[in-house]
Amino acid sequence: MNKVFWREMVECFNKISRDADCRAVVISGAGKMFTAGIDLMDMASDILQPKGDDVARISWYLRDIITRYQETFNVIERCPKPVIAAVHGGCIGGGESAAILLLGCSPGGAAAPMPRPLASSLSSVMGQTVSQEAAPPPGSQGWFWWSFSIPGLYLLGVDLVTACDIRYCAQDAFFQVKEVDVGLAADVGTLQRLPKVIGNQSLVNELAFTARKMMADEALGSGLVSRVFPDKEVMLDAALALAAEISSKSPVAVQSTKVNLLYSRDHSVAESLNYVASWNMSMLQTQDLVKSVQATTENKELKTVTFSKL
Length: 310
Hints:
The chain is an alpha/beta fold. The protein has helices at residues 3-18, 40-48, 55-78, 116-126, 157-162, 190-198, 201-210, 216-222, 232-247, 251-265, 269-283, 287-297, and strands at residues 22-29, 83-87, 90-92, 97-105, 143-151, 166-170, 174-176, 213-215, 227-229. It is built from 12 helices and 9 strands.
């Protein structure tokens, strides 16, 4: 992960969050593994030679850097569209490149090119042309899809995937909280999100203190991932099919569900019930509710229903 990545990931997901055509996001690795580690050489000047005349000023400078890096993954969690991580090979706390695959509604019911405004915006942010896939992914009928890659960038794998809503992995995947091996404590999300994801503080402590590898079967058993697949291709097909299924639902319902799941994670049951009551006193007035109920009573699939963009 280098300095360009930290900035562009925030800009990218801010644009995705505001784009009404996109209803789900899949993040996968473009190289031999999902992510191989942080680009320490690129970060060395900021971390090892920080700016400032004294301890206080150096500390403020470093704190600003850390909080900006944290935002890189906070923006994924805050994205109202469900984000699916599809992991193969190594997912190390700290690859060669990352590929972002997006899936959204195609109102005409057939595969469609990426909406021009989003293509232009993402191309500008990434400094490269965002490309349409040559063939539609499985289960994508009635949806548009596109992808772009971030070449030469290094990802903090566990920090990234724990900020995602759903995690799939291939049988060759492994996860590693590597920061202690480079002399620091993980500070952009792993230590905060991983305990909530797997619900086993002892296991989290073991992984964080030792930097040992967690293989795919253990990741499934601990709840870090929800499914394991034989290889990358099968996994990616399943992730895209899942994104297509999510995209067929009411965007009001899906995005409201994500907002309330995140709120409930960090609040008591009583607080969360009060929050969803306040939320749904307006959201229940959507026409999506009427359309969904009507489709159910008429034994129609939701993918045949046209929901307005959100």
